[in-house]
Amino acid sequence: MKTKIRPANPADVPALFHIRTSVRENHLSREQLAGLGITEASIAEMISAAPCAWAAVSGDEVVGFSMIDSAEGSLFAAFVLPSHERMGIGAKLVDAAENELFRHHSEIWLETAENSRAAGFYRHLGWSNETKVEDDQIRLTKARP
Fold first, then answer.
1. Sheet containing 107-113: which strands, arranged edge to edge?
2. Fewest CB atoms within 10 Å of the CB: 9, 43, 74, 89?
3. Residue 40 buriedness (CB in 10 A; 0-12 / 13-18 / 19+)
């Protein structure tokens, strides 16, 4: 079944949390996310306020998402359910996020673990100019194409 990328809406938030707590790498529980100020209510509010999230939908199921902070010029996250990895969905989600970020910024950034699968994925998509942030965290940037 073909996967479509569309703007996320508040009704998608439970699925986004299911995806976020299902990823193999950087697994965080709902409680840990809440400790970081990330709750279903806060994400629904962000989605309602501005275009900041995209959902990957296969049939009726949300199987991935990406989120940005447009004001900061940063990509928060791009996650895909383990059952839908390696299908090009993550790259499409990042592309949707990049398009919105580049509307407002000439350089965009994200932070991730230095030796993670995610870091390799973003490097493959052209994110570079690594800067060490702390411990094993790095900042990757990407310039407007």
1. 3-7, 53-58, 61-69, 74-80, 107-113, 137-143, 128-134
2. 9
3. middle
